[in-house]
Every structure is written in C-alpha cells, then in structure tokens.
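Re-run with default settings, no changes from the original entry. Doing this only to confirm the output is reproducible before filing.
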Amino acid sequence: MMTYENALKKIRSLLSFGSRPGLDRMLALLDRMGNPQDRLKYIHVAGTNGKGSVCALLSSALVSAGYKTGLFISPYITDFCERIQINNTPVGREAIAEAVENTFPLIERLQNEGIIITEFEYVNALEFYIHANAECDIVVLETGMGGMLDCTNVIKSPLCSVITTIGIDHTAVLGSTLAEIAEQKCGIIKEHSYAVTSKQEFEAMQVIESTARKLKIPLAKSEGVQIDIKSESLDGSVFDFNGTEILLPLAGEHQIENAETALAAIEILRLNGLIDISDMQIQDGFAKAKNPARLETLCKDPIVILDGAHNPNGTAALKRAIDRFLPNKDIICIMGMLADKDSESSLKLLENTFSRVFTVPIDNPRALASEELMQKCRKHFDNVTAFDSDKAAFDAALEAAKRTGCAVVICGSLYLAGSIRPYVLSRC
C-alpha cells in the first residue's frame, strides 16, 4: 500500500516538466483512466482574481443545499489535500495515496511513449478520478492560469462557466492585453450551457459578451444581482439579498463583488432548473464559506492580516481594504514575491501604505530573493529591511506591534501565505 508521503513524491516528481498549455496530453491520460471527467457535472470558474473566493462561496452554498459537492482549487495554502475537496473538506491522505497508487503507472507508461504529463495535469486528473469515484453531484472546478488551453478545459459543456475579474497576469502565456487574456479565459465558455461574469474592464467585457453571442448562450452579470449592503468590516460584510440577510465572512469590497458573481451563477442555474437551492440555504452556505489568505485576519490584538495578493489587481484590492479598515494606522508589512510577477506595479500601488517593510524569501524556485526585493521596495518605501526567513520577520514584526500598537500585513504571494500561516497562528 502506497503511503501519502510516497504519493506526494511521485506527484512532485512531475514538477520538473513545468507548465505546458494544451489539452492533448491530458486527454490521453484521461482516456487511459476511463474518462472519469465525463461522469460529472461542473461549474467551471476562470479569471485573474477572485476565482478562489467565488469557488468557495459556490461550493459552500451547494453543500448547504444538500448536494455532494466536489471542489478543485489551486494553489493550496498549507496542505496539498486542500486542492481536492468533497463537501468543503479536503480529501484524506489515504484517498490521495490510493488514487496515486492506482493511476501513476499510467503516467509512467505514457512517459515511455513520449507523452510527458505535468504536475498540474496529473493533480487535475486525480481530482477527476477522486470526484467521479465519490459520485459527486456537482464539481466546482477552478482553472489554473488560463482557460482555453488549461487542462481543466477537457470537460464537456458545464452547467455554467464563470469568468471572474480579468487583469494583466501570466502575460508570457496568456497575452499582453486584456482582450487577449479575456479570449483565453473565455475558452471555458461552451455551447448548451450558461455563462456568468464579474464586472470587467470594457475591453474584457466585449470579449465575454461576444463569446456568449457566438455560442448563443445566456450571459448573467454580477452587476445584475441586487443586494443592499448593511455593514462592512475586517470580519466581513452583511448584506440583504431577496429579503434575506447574508453574512459574508470574507472581508473587502472585492469580496462583495465575488459574492455577487457567485449569486449570479446560483440565480441563473436555479431559474433554469439545474439546481434546487433556497435563499436560506444560500445564507447558510455563505456564512460558512472559508478562503484562507484572502484579507484574512489571523489575530486581532495586535491586528495581523494575511493576504495572498500577487498581481496589480489583487494588490489594488488589498490597498483599498487597508485604506478602508485601517486608516491612519502604522503598519509593518512582511512581503515576499515571485520573480515572474509584476512587482513594480504592485509596489507602486502600495506606496505610502506601510511605515516599515520586511522582505522575506519564499521557498519556491521562482522566488525573488529577499535582498533583491528589498532593493525594489526602497524605491517606494522609506524603511525596508531584508530578512533571511519569514518566521524571523514575523517575530520582529509581532514584537514591534505589541510594543507600539501597529498592525501587521503579510502579502505578496500565496506561497508565502502557505508557508507563514501556521507559524502566525501558533504565535497569535
């Protein structure tokens, strides 16, 4: 019997093959596996920002409505099992080990035939395998970086395709303009289905509307959802929807937009008889939704906030939240970033936000060195210190926060968030 540790080694052995857009390899693997993806119904979610939160809200609402709900997300925050969930609970390590034991020989056979499967492709195939064998009613399926050529896009027409906020990211693969990126994201929209979109820049919305018209499918927009916001804080928001008071435990105005997007998807599906869900079940599901490392308050005294924003759109949302909820507050920022991200734009957006910045390394081959990030930060902040570890940086920040009453914000990468989150929770 394969152990979980050996299963992870086998999965991670495929990381060296990098990321390769395209569906042929994935289709070859799934064919050998008996095409488990064809036994499931999906809500397929693509976009630059907000995917994880929209997926969390949709999954939680469906679980509250009594559906056996699969969820596939990436990346995970602290534990690999988070990537494949059933009813909002990560599948057990035994399930991962068993799935790898049963399917990895297919990877090796394909390698011998010259077909190289990447790590993300294999993890996605494991998701299809596990969710199909568990006989999930609906799977909420988050894409990787793209849409059209993303390996999740091997599925047939989903119940609906959701496009969250589109911004500039992964330009080497997806294109350098909003229109080019939107075209890639819209690759998940298919005929005989429904489409849903968040608010978009004009350029991106044109592509989404054109795609829906060409395929002759209805397009629902988040801006068509009527809500009345009652309150907003670092604990989340409260709003009225159809006369029902909804607690949204995800903080920030961008999360209200994500909630409206999830509600637009729910509305179009239930109006067309594809799901049966009441407003009270939506209320229950949204209140239970969790999406760690998205403007997450880990400690209240002193205030410690963890956010995985890693591109200009996400950073702008973080900046708005800080201005709204922590006005005139001294803040120490702990920051780590990947080298292939648009760090200059993100840093410029955060100018004048932090009194001190501690740069830290990330355990990732694409990471920006702490010293190099320090030099970049010094163009935008007066007081910047490079640390050798995120734990040492947090210890220093926590001591200063307890002494002076300032807040701590940790940001720059979901990989940093995953590394530091357990340590922060152990100290707060």
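The longest helix spans residues 93-112. The two ends are 39 Å apart (CA to CA).
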